[in-house]
Each structure stands twice: as structure tokens, then as C-alpha cells.
Specification:
This protein is of the alpha/beta class and 353 residues long. The strands form 3 sheets. A 7-stranded mixed beta sheet has the order 4-3-2-5-6-8-7. Strand 5, helix 4 and strand 6 form a beta-alpha-beta unit. The chain has 10 helices and 11 strands.
Length: 353
């Protein structure tokens, strides 16, 4: 079954329920948050608009397991499969790596606990035309809502540019908030989070949106951690700034000092352009992450990617919140009374008056 892309008018709330090879990077792992071992059964997540797998890395480190992924970009799919085929072969062998999110048949999706989606940011970004829902990519939010409504995951984690919060004088975000809270019945927590607040030497402010099917699930975004790794560490020399500029898609090569320059730095007093390895480090991808594509495609993929460490810290907070709420429900649940079984004594019946 092929399902058409939906808009808000298609959502209805039911009574019972409110994504030339430069080689491997040498990127250090900047995020050293507490690791949670996979439990049996672990929490399962779906990775929509998966890109090259930043959400996949983050939630795997937080103890969850990816059971479904989707992305329609040919080159991003190649990078994703190259890096995750060995650890999650079932995604690719069992046809659980879908293409266009708009054509996903929810009945064919496996069940999952958490939906992740770093959905396209161009309709809301100051770099793009900011057409919002007038851009077909902007309406992809409603496909996320369609999948949430059908699959009823325990929680979701959405990521986009900070401009979404104030797009169209706040009307766009107000619509999304209403869909989540009123149409779907989920809670919504949101915050602008910077990559540099979680160990990565890059600004990259992004809007994080987290919600739970049980609105009483207690959740707080994690507190920032001190930055101990700077651009000097990434580039291996003296750099004019400790925190790098936000990695972008395209637009490389502007002169130092230009307002659009993001990939040029003065390294030991000499102009230096970011390499794939260095850009991957700024985004928090591990040293063994491989890009089986051209340098141009790899840089584009990294510009579209999420800052892994910031996502990981939030993912860890979500996993703990879900487990805490589950434990609270289990301890307050009143066990059903067990009926007392009595046996009849035939002798007593015969001797009774």
C-alpha cells in the first residue's frame, strides 16, 4: 500500500490515544556522557530522515536499538549502509531501510518505542527561502505526525534549525505544537541546544523537540557541559577562535572575514579549509566512520548531519525518563485481588442438620 503525503487535515485524534572517497575520519569522540548497556529487551527506535546516521549513533550509545530507517538520498543511503550494515544487518536484509518517508506504509513498519527525525530544515532556515509549509519539504512534518498517530511510539525526538521556532511570526511552530499536543495527545518539550554546549567545538544552534505519549512522563533537557576540546585540538595548531562556525551545506570557499565563510580558518596564521576528517570531528562522528562518496558529497552530508554529542546527551535523558516512568507505573499499579478458592467437605455436608 502506498500512502500519500498528509497534511494536518488528515489527522484525527482517536478517543483512546491523545529518516572520490576521503576515507575514515580521525575524529575524536567528544561526548563522554554515561553509557547505558543494551538491556533485554532494549528500547527500539525508528530513524526517519536518517541522513548518514547521527541519530543512529547517538541512540545506540544511549542503549537503544535501531529497527527501522528511512532516507531518499542515494548518496546518504550509501554512507549509512556502509557504516551500519555490520552492526545492524537486519535493517538492510529485511527491507527495513525505506526511501521516501511520504510513501512509507505504516502497517509494514515494525513496532518501535522512539521515533527520531531530523526533518529537512531548508524551508525554515535563514539560508533558504523560508517558505515553511509552502515548501513541499516543510509539509514532511505532517508525515511524521501520520507515522506517530499510526504507530503510537512511547516518545519522539525531532530536530530542526532554530529559525523554525519564530518562522512566520511563530505561526508555523504553533501549528506543529497544536498537532503534537491536541491532535496526537503527546507532551512537547523544546529547547534551542548548541553543539558547543555538549563538547563539540562548533556553534550549531538547533531546535530540539521531545515528546511522550504519556504526558506525565517527567523530562528535562540535560545541562550543558564545559567545552574541553577546541578548534585548536581539531585542526592541530593555533586557531583564531576556540568554537568553530556552524557547518553548512554548500557555500564553501568564501574568503576569511566574509559573512558567509564557514569552512575557512586561520591556522598558525595561514588560511586553512576544513577537510572531511576535520568537519566530521566538529560534528562528533567517531574515528572509524567512513564516507564511501566524493569529498563534495561527504561535506554535503556532514552539513546536513546532526551534532552527535548533543543528540546523545538528550537521548540518554529520554531513555532514563521512559524507564523512570515505566518503573513508577509498575510500583503504583494495584494488583488484582486473587479469589479465594474453597473446597466442599462432603462429610461435613452429610453430618450437618
Amino acid at each position: 500500500m502506498i500512502t500519500e503525503s498528509t497534511t494536518r487535515t488528515g489527522l484525527r485524534r482517536s478517543p483512546e490515544r491523545r529518516t572520490n572517497n576521503p576515507g575514515s575520519t580521525r575524529a575524536p569522540r567528544f561526548c563522554n556522557t554515561e553509557r547505558i548497556r543494551h538491556e533485554k529487551p532494549p528500547l527500539r527506535f525508528a530513524d526517519l530522515f536518517a541522513g548518514i546516521g547521527g541519530f543512529h549513533l547517538a541512540f545506540d550509545r544511549a542503549g537503544a536499538v535501531c529497527v527501522f530507517a528511512a532516507d531518499n538520498d542515494t548518496y546518504a543511503r550509501k554512507t549509512y549502509e556502509t557504516n551500519f550494515a555490520a552492526t545492524r544487518p537486519e535493517l538492510f536484509a529485511e527491507n527495513r531501510f525505506a526511501g521516501d518517508v511520504r510513501t512509507i506504509d505504516t502497517e509494514s513498519m515494525p513496532d518501535f518505542d522512539i521515533l527520531c527525525a531530523g526533518f529537512p530544515c531548508q524551508p525554515f532556515s535563514i539560508i533558504g527561502h523560508r517558505q515553511g509549509f509552502e515548501d513541499t519539504r516543510g509539509t514532511l512534518f505532517f508525515d511524521i505526525a501520520r507515522i506517530i498517530e499510526a504507530k503510537q511510539p512511547t516518545a519522539f525526538f525531532l530536530e530542526n534549525v532554530q529559525g523554525l521556532l519564530k518562522h512566520d511570526d511563530g505561526a508555523t511552530f504553533a501549528t506543529m505544537k497544536s498537532v503534537i499536543e491536541d491532535d496526537l495527545g503527546y507532551s512537547l518539550h523544546y529547547k534551542i541546544v548548541r553543539a558547543c554546549d555538549f563538547g563539540l567545538p562548533q556553534l550549531r544552534p538547533r531546535l530540539f523537540m521531545v515528546g511522550f505519549r504519556d504526558p506525565d512522563t517527567p523530562f528535562e533537557f540535560p545541562d550543558p557541559i564545559p567545552l574541553t576540546t577546541t578548534m585548536t585540538d581539531v585542526l592541530g595548531g593555533s586557531v583564531e577562535r576556540a568554537i568553530g562556525r556552524t557547518v553548512l551545506v554548500g557555500g564553501r570557499g568564501y574568503r576569511i572575514g566574509h559573512s558567509r565563510n564557514w569552512d575557512g580558518y586561520l591556522l598558525n596564521g595561514v588560511v586553512h579549509r576544513l577537510t572531511v576528517t576535520e568537519t566530521a570531528a566538529m560534528q562528533g562522528f567517531p574515528p572509524d566512520f567512513t564516507f564511501p562518496v566524493s569529498t563534495t558529497q561527504a561535506m554535503k552530508q556532514l552539513g546536513n548531519a546532526i551534532a552527535v554529542a548533543a543528540i546523545e546527551a538528550t537521548a540518554l535523558a529520554m531513555v532514563k525518563a521512559i524507564r523512570a516512568r515505566t518503573a513508577a507505573r509498575d510500583t503504583t499499579r494495584v494488583p488484582q485481588s486473587i479469589p479465594v478458592l474453597t473446597t466442599t467437605n462432603p462429610t461435613a455436608e452429610r453430618n450437618s442438620p
